[in-house]
Every structure is written in structure tokens, then in C-alpha cells.
Structure to design on (227 residues):
């Protein structure tokens, strides 16, 4: 669990109004009591009104809410729309993440902002995206994040099939199709590949470094120059 997620969980636990001991917190989040004490110190320093002390227990006085309360109605609507778009057109993992993020935000919103979330009437009807395509998006995104090269079988617009090994740099959504911007080891140049034209995608164990002239920033600068 990421530390930020643990902080969120601890705050939610303490907002119950009951006094929770460090041992109970440690058991719930599978951390040491020493880590609990450090987390409490950091939460207090960040302004969370935690009451209690080591050896007794902790709680949060009533009326405390999390930072999402600072969102405006326009920001709440934007988050809802963005999450719906990801759920409709993104990878399977990101769709689940978007739904969980909205649930977390909704759980700490006051009634008037929760109503604004419910009243957002902008939707993203799901496209006929095969499950395999969603899985492929997830796999490519993971490879980008971990800087793993990928091997693939690809068919271009002329129907010509080829095997490629590429450095995946970024995913782009164009309303109907997803494309991958990559450094192609075969062509020794930047190339863009449509995700739906990939027959197979396999992440390799090899990790690539950001070399000058082969990065996403270099690709975007080249695209900007050609416009």
C-alpha cells in the first residue's frame, strides 16, 4: 500500500469518533507500531487535528473533513467526467482505479458537493472495446512506467505485417483509436503504432534508459516542429 493511501485509510479510521490504539492501527494496515507513531507525527504536522498519544490511542475530533472539500463544483464535475471517460475508453486497470478514486472523493464530500457530483450530466458511453484491447492498454502502460521494451507483431494500414521491438514512450487517445508513440529499434527512429493493429504485445525484461534523441520529449518536440 502506498503511504498516501495508508494516510487516507488512517484518517478515515480515526474519523469514526472512537479512540483507536496504535496496535489496532498497526494490525489493520500491517505495519509496525513505530511506523504508526511516525505516521501520526507526519499527519499532525500536515494539519490533521489528531487527538491522543502513544500508549493511549488516537481519534479525530468531529467536523474534520479531507482536502477534497476544497474542490469547486466545476472541479468535481471535471473529475466525474474524466473518470467516466477512463472507465469507458481506458484500460481495465485504469477503469477500476477511476471508479475507486471517485468513491474515495465522494466519501469525504459534504452534501452540497456530493449532490454536484451526482448531478454531473456528462457521460461517456462505452465503446465496443474488446477485453483484449483493454488488457493490451494496461500491459503497454505498465511497460511505459517500468521502461521495459516491448516486442510485437504489427500490421500497418497497407496490411503489411512485421515484427518490432520498441521503446514505448506514451499512449495517445484520438477519440476512436489509441496509438503508441515509440522509438522503433528496427527503423532507428520514432514511430506511431495503433493499438488495435497489434496482434501480439510482449513486455521484455530489458529496461531502456532515456537517451538523448530517443525520449518522449524529443518525440513531442519533433511533432511540434512538423506542424
Amino acid at each position: 500500500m502506498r503511504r498516501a493511501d495508508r494516510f487516507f485509510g488512517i484518517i478515515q479510521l480515526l474519523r469514526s469518533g472512537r479512540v483507536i490504539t496504535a496496535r489496532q492501527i498497526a494490525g489493520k494496515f500491517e505495519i509496525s507500531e513505530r511506523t504508526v507513531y511516525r505516521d501520526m507525527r507526519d499527519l499532525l504536522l500536515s494539519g490533521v487535528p489528531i487527538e491522543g498519544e502513544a500508549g493511549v490511542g488516537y481519534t479525530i475530533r468531529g467536523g474534520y473533513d479531507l482536502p477534497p472539500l476544497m474542490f469547486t463544483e466545476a472541479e468535481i464535475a471535471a473529475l466525474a467526467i474524466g473518470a467516466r471517460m477512463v472507465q469507458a475508453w481506458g484500460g481495465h486497470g485504469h477503469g477500476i482505479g477511476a471508479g475507486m478514486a471517485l468513491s474515495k472523493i465522494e466519501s469525504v464530500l459534504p452534501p452540497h458537493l456530493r449532490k454536484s457530483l451526482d448531478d454531473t450530466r456528462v457521460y461517456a458511453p462505452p465503446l465496443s472495446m474488446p477485453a483484449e484491447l483493454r488488457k493490451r492498454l494496461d500491459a503497454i502502460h505498465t511497460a511505459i512506467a517500468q521502461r521495459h521494451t516491448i516486442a510485437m507483431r504489427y500490421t500497418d494500414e497497407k496490411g503489411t505485417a512485421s515484427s518490432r521491438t520498441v521503446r514505448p514512450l506514451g499512449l495517445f487517445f484520438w477519440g476512436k483509436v489509441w496509438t503508441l508513440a515509440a522509438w522503433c529499434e528496427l527503423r532507428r527512429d520514432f514511430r506511431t503504432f495503433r493499438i488495435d493493429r497489434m496482434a501480439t504485445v510482449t513486455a521484455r525484461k530489458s529496461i531502456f534508459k532515456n537517451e538523448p534523441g530517443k525520449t518522449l520529449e524529443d518525440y513531442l518536440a519533433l511533432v511540434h516542429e512538423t506542424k
Notes: The chain has three domains: 3-60, 67-118, 131-226. The chain has eight helices and seven strands. The chain has a mean pLDDT of 88.
